[in-house]
Amino acid sequence: MEGRLFTFLGAIGGHSQEWITLSHYALVLVILFLVVNAATRKMTLVPTGAQNMMEAFIGGIIAMGADTMGEKNARTYLPLIGSFALVIFLSNIMGVIPGFESPTANINFTLALALIIFTYYNYVGIKLNGVINYFKHFMGPMPILAPLMFPIEIISHLSRIISLSFRLFGSIRGDDMFLMVLLMLVPWLLPLPGFFLLAAFGLLQAFIFSILSYVYIAGSVMMAEEEH
Fold this sequence. Notes:
Elements (H helix, E strand, L loop, with lengths): L7 H6 L3 H25 L7 H21 L1 H6 L1 H17 L12 H23 L1 H6 L9 H40 L6 H36 L1
Protein backbone atom coordinates (compact mmCIF):
# COMPACT_ATOMS: atom_id res chain seq x y z
CA MET A 1 0.00 0.00 0.00
CA GLU A 2 3.07 2.23 0.12
CA GLY A 3 2.70 5.33 -2.08
CA ARG A 4 -0.98 4.65 -2.69
CA LEU A 5 -4.17 6.27 -1.49
CA PHE A 6 -6.48 4.23 0.70
CA THR A 7 -9.24 2.50 -1.27
CA PHE A 8 -12.33 0.81 0.12
CA LEU A 9 -12.03 -2.11 -2.30
CA GLY A 10 -8.36 -2.42 -1.45
CA ALA A 11 -9.28 -2.78 2.22
CA ILE A 12 -11.53 -5.69 1.24
CA GLY A 13 -9.31 -7.65 -1.16
CA GLY A 14 -5.84 -6.24 -0.69
CA HIS A 15 -3.93 -3.51 -2.49
CA SER A 16 -2.37 -5.53 -5.28
CA GLN A 17 -2.53 -3.71 -8.61
CA GLU A 18 -4.49 -6.52 -10.25
CA TRP A 19 -7.21 -6.54 -7.58
CA ILE A 20 -7.49 -2.75 -7.49
CA THR A 21 -7.88 -2.48 -11.26
CA LEU A 22 -10.25 -5.41 -11.76
CA SER A 23 -12.44 -4.62 -8.76
CA HIS A 24 -12.85 -0.98 -9.73
CA TYR A 25 -13.53 -1.96 -13.33
CA ALA A 26 -16.23 -4.34 -12.09
CA LEU A 27 -17.68 -1.49 -10.05
CA VAL A 28 -17.70 0.71 -13.17
CA LEU A 29 -19.66 -1.96 -15.05
CA VAL A 30 -22.18 -2.26 -12.20
CA ILE A 31 -22.73 1.51 -12.16
CA LEU A 32 -23.04 1.56 -15.94
CA PHE A 33 -25.61 -1.24 -15.84
CA LEU A 34 -27.67 0.60 -13.22
CA VAL A 35 -27.59 3.86 -15.18
CA VAL A 36 -28.59 2.19 -18.46
CA ASN A 37 -31.30 0.20 -16.71
CA ALA A 38 -32.70 3.39 -15.14
CA ALA A 39 -32.65 5.13 -18.53
CA THR A 40 -34.48 2.35 -20.39
CA ARG A 41 -36.84 1.00 -17.73
CA LYS A 42 -39.67 3.47 -18.36
CA MET A 43 -39.02 5.20 -21.65
CA THR A 44 -41.30 8.10 -22.61
CA LEU A 45 -41.73 10.34 -25.63
CA VAL A 46 -40.67 13.32 -23.54
CA PRO A 47 -37.49 12.07 -21.85
CA THR A 48 -36.68 12.97 -18.28
CA GLY A 49 -34.02 12.04 -15.77
CA ALA A 50 -31.68 9.22 -16.77
CA GLN A 51 -33.39 8.73 -20.15
CA ASN A 52 -32.83 12.40 -21.01
CA MET A 53 -29.19 12.15 -19.97
CA MET A 54 -28.56 9.03 -22.05
CA GLU A 55 -30.33 10.41 -25.11
CA ALA A 56 -28.21 13.55 -24.90
CA PHE A 57 -25.10 11.38 -24.61
CA ILE A 58 -26.06 9.25 -27.62
CA GLY A 59 -26.84 12.35 -29.66
CA GLY A 60 -23.46 13.82 -28.78
CA ILE A 61 -21.59 10.64 -29.78
CA ILE A 62 -23.44 10.49 -33.11
CA ALA A 63 -22.75 14.17 -33.80
CA MET A 64 -19.07 13.63 -33.02
CA GLY A 65 -18.85 10.69 -35.41
CA ALA A 66 -20.94 12.36 -38.12
CA ASP A 67 -18.25 15.00 -38.60
CA THR A 68 -15.74 12.23 -39.28
CA MET A 69 -17.58 9.54 -41.26
CA GLY A 70 -21.15 10.74 -41.83
CA GLU A 71 -24.21 10.15 -39.68
CA LYS A 72 -25.04 6.73 -41.15
CA ASN A 73 -21.61 5.31 -40.35
CA ALA A 74 -21.56 7.08 -36.98
CA ARG A 75 -24.77 5.27 -36.01
CA THR A 76 -23.34 1.97 -37.21
CA TYR A 77 -20.34 2.19 -34.88
CA LEU A 78 -22.21 3.95 -32.06
CA PRO A 79 -22.48 0.82 -29.83
CA LEU A 80 -18.71 0.34 -29.79
CA ILE A 81 -17.68 3.98 -29.40
CA GLY A 82 -20.50 4.79 -26.99
CA SER A 83 -19.60 1.84 -24.77
CA PHE A 84 -15.95 2.84 -24.73
CA ALA A 85 -16.83 6.46 -23.93
CA LEU A 86 -19.02 5.48 -20.98
CA VAL A 87 -16.55 2.97 -19.55
CA ILE A 88 -13.60 5.34 -19.89
CA PHE A 89 -15.48 8.33 -18.47
CA LEU A 90 -16.76 6.40 -15.44
CA SER A 91 -13.32 4.84 -14.94
CA ASN A 92 -11.69 8.27 -15.01
CA ILE A 93 -14.23 9.78 -12.61
CA MET A 94 -13.84 6.83 -10.25
CA GLY A 95 -10.39 8.06 -9.24
CA VAL A 96 -11.68 11.53 -8.38
CA ILE A 97 -13.84 10.10 -5.58
CA PRO A 98 -11.82 9.67 -2.36
CA GLY A 99 -11.52 6.01 -1.46
CA PHE A 100 -11.57 4.76 -5.05
CA GLU A 101 -9.08 4.47 -7.91
CA SER A 102 -9.32 4.79 -11.67
CA PRO A 103 -8.92 1.56 -13.67
CA THR A 104 -7.54 3.78 -16.45
CA ALA A 105 -4.59 4.67 -14.21
CA ASN A 106 -3.25 1.19 -15.04
CA ILE A 107 -1.31 0.95 -18.33
CA ASN A 108 -2.44 -2.66 -18.83
CA PHE A 109 -6.07 -1.54 -18.81
CA THR A 110 -5.60 1.32 -21.28
CA LEU A 111 -3.40 -0.87 -23.48
CA ALA A 112 -6.18 -3.47 -23.66
CA LEU A 113 -8.65 -0.75 -24.75
CA ALA A 114 -6.24 0.50 -27.41
CA LEU A 115 -5.63 -3.03 -28.73
CA ILE A 116 -9.38 -3.59 -29.08
CA ILE A 117 -9.74 -0.45 -31.20
CA PHE A 118 -6.62 -1.29 -33.24
CA THR A 119 -7.82 -4.83 -33.94
CA TYR A 120 -11.36 -3.74 -34.73
CA TYR A 121 -10.61 -0.97 -37.23
CA ASN A 122 -8.14 -3.19 -39.07
CA TYR A 123 -10.73 -5.98 -39.12
CA VAL A 124 -13.32 -3.58 -40.54
CA GLY A 125 -10.85 -2.34 -43.15
CA ILE A 126 -9.99 -5.87 -44.30
CA LYS A 127 -13.64 -6.94 -44.26
CA LEU A 128 -14.80 -4.01 -46.40
CA ASN A 129 -11.83 -3.84 -48.77
CA GLY A 130 -10.28 -7.30 -48.79
CA VAL A 131 -6.77 -8.06 -47.58
CA ILE A 132 -4.99 -7.04 -50.80
CA ASN A 133 -6.84 -3.77 -51.34
CA TYR A 134 -6.57 -2.81 -47.68
CA PHE A 135 -2.81 -3.17 -47.50
CA LYS A 136 -2.48 -1.73 -51.00
CA HIS A 137 -3.45 1.63 -49.52
CA PHE A 138 -0.40 1.38 -47.28
CA MET A 139 1.89 1.59 -50.33
CA GLY A 140 1.18 5.17 -51.34
CA PRO A 141 -0.11 6.66 -54.60
CA MET A 142 2.76 5.41 -56.78
CA PRO A 143 4.34 1.93 -56.94
CA ILE A 144 7.82 3.42 -56.85
CA LEU A 145 7.12 4.79 -53.37
CA ALA A 146 5.84 1.48 -51.99
CA PRO A 147 9.17 0.33 -50.41
CA LEU A 148 9.28 3.62 -48.49
CA MET A 149 5.59 4.16 -47.73
CA PHE A 150 4.67 0.64 -46.58
CA PRO A 151 6.99 0.49 -43.51
CA ILE A 152 6.09 4.09 -42.65
CA GLU A 153 2.38 3.23 -42.71
CA ILE A 154 2.93 0.11 -40.60
CA ILE A 155 4.84 2.11 -37.99
CA SER A 156 2.17 4.81 -38.11
CA HIS A 157 -0.61 2.33 -37.41
CA LEU A 158 1.32 0.59 -34.62
CA SER A 159 2.03 3.96 -33.02
CA ARG A 160 -1.72 4.45 -32.63
CA ILE A 161 -1.70 1.76 -29.96
CA ILE A 162 0.91 3.71 -28.01
CA SER A 163 -0.89 6.99 -28.61
CA LEU A 164 -4.27 5.76 -27.37
CA SER A 165 -3.00 3.82 -24.38
CA PHE A 166 -0.23 6.09 -23.05
CA ARG A 167 -2.18 9.33 -23.51
CA LEU A 168 -5.07 8.04 -21.43
CA PHE A 169 -2.85 6.30 -18.87
CA GLY A 170 -0.48 9.25 -18.47
CA SER A 171 -3.25 11.77 -18.00
CA ILE A 172 -5.20 9.75 -15.43
CA ARG A 173 -2.09 8.60 -13.56
CA GLY A 174 -1.00 12.24 -13.38
CA ASP A 175 -4.44 13.20 -12.05
CA ASP A 176 -4.20 10.52 -9.36
CA MET A 177 -0.77 11.75 -8.28
CA PHE A 178 -2.03 15.33 -8.21
CA LEU A 179 -4.98 14.26 -6.08
CA MET A 180 -2.69 12.34 -3.71
CA VAL A 181 -0.52 15.40 -3.16
CA LEU A 182 -3.56 17.66 -2.83
CA LEU A 183 -5.15 15.52 -0.13
CA MET A 184 -1.89 15.34 1.81
CA LEU A 185 -1.41 19.11 1.79
CA VAL A 186 -4.88 20.47 2.54
CA PRO A 187 -8.05 19.31 4.35
CA TRP A 188 -10.65 17.37 2.38
CA LEU A 189 -13.12 20.23 1.92
CA LEU A 190 -10.67 22.79 0.55
CA PRO A 191 -9.57 20.93 -2.62
CA LEU A 192 -13.12 20.84 -4.08
CA PRO A 193 -12.12 23.06 -7.06
CA GLY A 194 -9.38 20.53 -7.78
CA PHE A 195 -11.95 17.72 -7.83
CA PHE A 196 -14.02 19.58 -10.44
CA LEU A 197 -10.89 20.18 -12.53
CA LEU A 198 -9.95 16.50 -12.42
CA ALA A 199 -13.51 15.54 -13.38
CA ALA A 200 -13.27 17.86 -16.40
CA PHE A 201 -9.95 16.25 -17.40
CA GLY A 202 -11.57 12.82 -17.09
CA LEU A 203 -14.36 13.88 -19.45
CA LEU A 204 -11.83 15.36 -21.88
CA GLN A 205 -9.77 12.17 -22.02
CA ALA A 206 -12.89 10.08 -22.69
CA PHE A 207 -13.78 12.48 -25.52
CA ILE A 208 -10.28 12.31 -27.03
CA PHE A 209 -10.18 8.51 -26.95
CA SER A 210 -13.65 8.29 -28.53
CA ILE A 211 -13.04 10.75 -31.34
CA LEU A 212 -9.67 9.17 -32.20
CA SER A 213 -11.38 5.78 -32.32
CA TYR A 214 -13.94 7.25 -34.72
CA VAL A 215 -11.14 8.70 -36.85
CA TYR A 216 -9.27 5.40 -37.07
CA ILE A 217 -12.43 3.47 -37.97
CA ALA A 218 -13.37 6.18 -40.47
CA GLY A 219 -10.05 5.66 -42.24
CA SER A 220 -10.99 2.03 -42.88
CA VAL A 221 -14.62 2.76 -43.77
CA MET A 222 -13.97 5.71 -46.06
CA MET A 223 -11.26 3.70 -47.81
CA ALA A 224 -13.96 1.32 -49.06
CA GLU A 225 -16.25 4.20 -50.10
CA GLU A 226 -13.46 5.84 -52.07
CA GLU A 227 -13.19 2.67 -54.15
CA HIS A 228 -16.84 3.09 -55.17
